[in-house]
Design brief:
It contains 3 helices and 9 strands, in the order E-H-E-H-E-E-E-H-E-E-E-E. With 168 residues, it is an alpha/beta fold. It has a single domain, classed as Rossmann fold, CATH 3.40.50.2020. Helix 1 (7-24) crosses helix 2 (40-47). The site of magnesium ion (MG) has 3 residues, from loops.
Length: 168
């Protein structure tokens, strides 16, 4: 494994995202929607850095086929427990790769009539995109590497690493 971002780099980027988001959502209450499991650490840190009141909920998604890619078919295996109607909602995700997962969730949540719907990802691999989706906030833009740590796993391992590593 090769270190891509040290813990300090990650935390600096989380603080930067929190500042941007806090500016845009000033005076609102925001529902953070984390995508399990990968986003749980990023969401925990981000939630503690933003300057507005938040509520939090989680969804769990599964993509058919398994492995390291989403093959274009996604479904919700654990839904939100909160109504989105009239709320300012921010989807929190660890990484966007093909874009299939976020595009699917965005469309499903939009149909529930939130007042606004935005997304933040810690990592973006734009060269891998298969469907058009641009998150509103991006921490790091990276090359086509498989990365682990800070919530991201390979076969459920490495989620607890405080930095981000390229798996070889
Ligand atoms: P997408 O639907 O292809 O954008 O995939 C998003 C999901 O794939 C993420 O939520 C991750 O679970 C997983 N994923 C994509 N790239 C990586 C990676 O480099 N490391 C760990 N998981 C990844
Ligand atoms: Mg994920």
């Amino acid at each position: 494994m090769k270190r891509l971002f040290a813990e300090g780099d990650v935390q600096r980027q989380v603080r930067r995202l929190a500042r941007e988001i806090s500016r845009d959502f000033a005076g609102r209450e925001v529902l953070l929607v984390g995508i399990l499991k990968g986003a749980f650490i990023f969401m925990a840190d981000l939630a503690r850095r933003v300057a507005f009141p938040v509520k939090m909920d989680f969804v769990r998604l599964a993509s058919y086929g398994g492995g390291t890619e989403s093959f274009g078919k996604v479904r919700i295996t654990k839904d939100l427990e909160t109504s989105l109607q009239g709320k300012d909602v921010l989807i929190v995700e660890d990484i966007i790769d093909t874009g299939v997962t976020l595009k699917y969730l965005f469309r499903r949540l939009k149909a529930r009539r939130p007042r606004s719907l935005k997304s933040v990802v810690l990592l973006d691999k734009p060269s891998r995109r298969k469907v058009r989706f641009q998150p509103d906030y991006v921490g790091f833009t990276i090359e086509d590497h498989f990365v682990v740590g800070y919530g991201l796993d390979f076969n459920e391992e490495y989620r607890n690493l405080p930095g981000i590593y390229v798996l070889k």
